Amino acid sequence: MPPAAPTNLGYTPPDGGWGWAVVFAAFISIGFSYAFPKSLTIYFKEIQEYFSVSYSEIAWVSSVMLASMYAGGPVSSILVNRYGSRPVVLVGGLMVSAAMVLASFGTTIMHLYLCVGVIGGFGLAFNLQPALTIIGTYFQVKRPLANGLAMTGSPVVLSTLAPLNQFLFDCFGWRGSFLILGSIVLNCCVAGALMRPVNKSVQPKPKTEPPLCNGAKSRSQGHVRKFIDLSLFRHRGFLIYLTGNVVMFFGFFAPVVFLAPYAKHQGIDEYSAAFLLSIFALVDMFIRPATGLIGNTKWIRPRIQYFFSFAVSYNGICHLLCPLASGYMGLVVYAVFFGLAFGMVSALLFEVLMDLVGAHRFSSAVGLVTIVECGPVLLGPPISGALVDIFGDYKYMYYACGVFMLVPGIFFFIMHYYNYKRLDEEQRQAVAVEMRTSEEATEEQLPCLSIQGALKDSITPSRD
Q1: 191, 89 in Cβ contact below 8 A?
Q2: How many CB atoms lie within 10 A of CB 254?
Q3: How confident is the model at residue 49 (pLDDT cuts 50, 70, 90)?
Q4: Span 233-278, pLDDT tens digits
Q5: Which of left, alpha, beta for 48 (phi over 0: left; psi -120 to 50: alpha)?
Q6: What CATH number labels 228-451?
Q7: Which segments cross the bilayer (predicted)?
Q8: What is the mean pLDDT of the chain?
């Protein structure tokens, strides 16, 4: 097993034991967080006809839900830092359940925006961040593997919810289905119950804070830092990650959303077009844990940021080459390679953030990242759809998404090379300062040792 990255947790994570139950809980919680908004699209056609609204109006239900999930990141992080992961996930599961039950009695589309979009989205935020955070408290050496297994929950839950929602829709309609989904999503509360706080065998040493020299302004900053660490905006690695991700998320989800419509645009029947998503999800499902295993090897773990840079660039290349795929078999090949690329990025997305900032600051980091990414997540698919409307062809949308992924991939390669180089220099300087301090301390002790030796000789009786 490769050596673990340095951590300031103050104790040794168990890297197993109950931690695997926590990974299973995170698998469920993360799975519902990412898959639930996508799975609801099955009901959109009937809801659209029921409320007599346009497709764009009904599509905003999922968009608002995803945007609320990302916007709720900082609130979720503050609650996790204050109360821990377990109670936050329990509250999140109850919120999503209540949102679906209330939505089943909806009379207007605005009712669905508020219930499913806002309340449900914030509930999903309370499921996502705590699940990501608690893994870092249980795992250090095996953390990439644990994160890869937990992130597999997204394609597994999606592949399960999609046929289940279709069955519920055929039997009970959208109102009855929403009531049943409100009970199904209570499984997040079961997941939250499994998220037992880690047993810290060694308590962390109290951190020494610098003296407060600016009075009440300084004290208020200390209170803010207690809940969410805004000093991360001065952290070099965090800023690299955030800058690249903002650009990347403009092209991250749109290729998945438009894969089936693109196939239909080429004259492929509906069932074959839908099967492309099944192929994509199947490949995605298996590559995520495999990526975790690869990321945990001694060759990849010390420089895992390069692995992430490759995965992002690989996504961009896939999208740029997609318009060259001709016929159904060409799209099948694209779906396989895209599934590999998407799964690799998804498995590494939060592991590399934890690698940069450390597990002790991860909760604040993921909250700050998601609130900034809220804009690209909300605007990315509509911008891509606008390109299709303007040019009347999907290939320009895929070209744009390819650029949105390839540019940050190259940016990550360059900036992480610079970051690793600076980190090595800083480590060498720290070692040199430590050695110099040790030598100076030894030199200060030499006169005292000489005096002690002389006194000892003077009081020692002679044998002559």
Answers
A1: yes
A2: 24
A3: confident
A4: 889 999 999 999 999 999 888 888 788 788 888 888 877 887 888 8
A5: alpha
A6: 1.20.1250.20
A7: 18-37, 58-80, 86-105, 112-139, 172-195, 238-260, 272-294, 306-326, 332-353, 365-384, 396-418
A8: 83
- Global pTM reads 0.74
| Nearest-10 Cα torsion for 256, 257, 262, 268 | 90
- How far apart CA 261 and CA 397 sit, in angstroms, is 12
Residue 41 CA: distances (Å) to CA of 60, 115, 162, 169, 224: 11, 16, 9, 11, 39
The structure tokens 């005096």 sit at 451
Distance CA 141, CA 154 (A): 24
Q: Which of 183, 187, 191 is nearest to 86 (CA)?
A: 191
Q: At 309, give phi and psi (nearest 5°).
A: -60, -40
Number of H helices, E strands in the chain: 19, 0
Q: Sketch the domain layout of the chain as residue ranges.
A: 11-199, 228-451
Mean pLDDT value across residues 29-48:
84
What CA–CA distance (Å, rounded) separates 66 from 120?
Answer: 9
Rounded Cα gap, residues 291 and 155, in angstroms: 14
CATH number for 11-199 (one of 2.30.40.10, 3.20.20.80, 3.30.2350.10, 1.20.1250.20): it is: 1.20.1250.20
Q: How far apart, in whole angstroms, are the C-alpha atoms of residue 185 and residue 217?
A: 43
